Amino acid sequence: MKKPTKPAVPVALVDDDAPYRDYIGTILDASGRYALAATAGSVEEAMRWPAKAQFAALLLDVALPGVAGSKAVGDFLAARPGLKIVMLTGRHEDEPLLEAIRAGAAGYLLKGSGSQEIVEALDDVLAGGAPMSPSIARRVLALLREPAAGGAAGETAALAQLTEREREVLALVADGRADKEICTQLGITRSTVKNHLTAIYDKWRVRSRTAAAVRFVRVTKG
Predict the structure, then answer these.
(1) Do domains 9-142 and 150-221 have the same CATH topology?
(2) 95 within 8 A of 122, measured Cβ to Cβ
(3) pLDDT truncated to tens, each residue of the chain (222 aa)?
(4) Predicted model pTM
(5) What's the maximum distance between 2 C-alpha atoms anywhere in the chain?
(6) Please, where are the H alpha helices in 32-80?
(7) Closest listed residue to residue 94, CA positions, set 133, 51, 141, 53
(8) Which residues, 6+ apart, have CB-to-CB distance to 196 below 8 Å?
């Protein structure tokens, strides 16, 4: 007997380039796993999507006419808690990069990324990872070498806020491990991993694993 086909995972896209929206739609349809469930050419348009329209992930252009995508991450997360946001960018600008990460963006992709990289990024972010194009990851590492705001004493105090287990979980997150891998390595359940991450977010006042990982690397490498 043939197994029933799993429904495609709904993905939303906000980008002002209509041909690029068509390109992403074609890629997702071809994947057999994802479907482009909603598109918008601006943040303002996307904010008018009905609340009942739910998506597992949002691909969001950093630079948009009107409200920039990097400035709208918090608004999207407030409207749709649990949404995984992957930023799309064609440029390397530090401030929008850090702004989106601090606001809760889960990852970054260059708009020139190929179809396989885009699909793999969605796989990664929905598995609890933080996908980034290699060149963007290198830029994040460079930013991590810069002095952290608040100085060394403040960052040491921030690390002391975490329990030993929370530090273990965060160290693995900073190493790029997905929740499933963390469960296996530490011998804990996925819900326990999520509980630890939630506690870390609350203590450090961050909104994503990427933002927490960025700060953790600064604290431990500073």
Answers:
(1) no
(2) no
(3) 455 567 899 999 999 999 999 999 999 999 999 999 999 999 999 999 998 888 999 999 998 999 999 999 999 999 998 899 999 988 766 678 778 888 888 888 888 889 999 999 999 888 877 787 777 776 766 665 555 555 555 566 888 899 999 999 988 888 777 788 899 999 999 889 989 988 998 898 877 777 788 788 777 765
(4) 0.72
(5) 63
(6) 43-46, 69-79
(7) 141
(8) 165, 166, 169
Q: CA angle 27-71-18, nearest 5°? A: 35
> Quick one: fold of 150-221?
Arc Repressor Mutant, subunit A (1.10.10)
CA–CA separation, 161 vs 153, rounded Å? 13
CB atoms within 10 A of CB 215: 24
Q: Using alpha carbons only, what angle is made at residue 147 by residues 143 and 149, rounded to the nearest 5 degrees?
A: 100
Q: What are the residue boundaries of the structural domains of the chain, listed by start?
A: 9-142, 150-221
Q: How many CA atoms lie within 13 A of 44 on its CB side?
A: 4
How distant is the alpha carbon of residue 4 from its chain centre? Answer: 30
- Contact between residue 110 and residue 117 where contact means Cβ atoms under 8 Å apart: no
**Which amino acid type is present at position 104?**
G
The architecture that CATH gives domain 9-142 is: 3-Layer(aba) Sandwich (3.40)
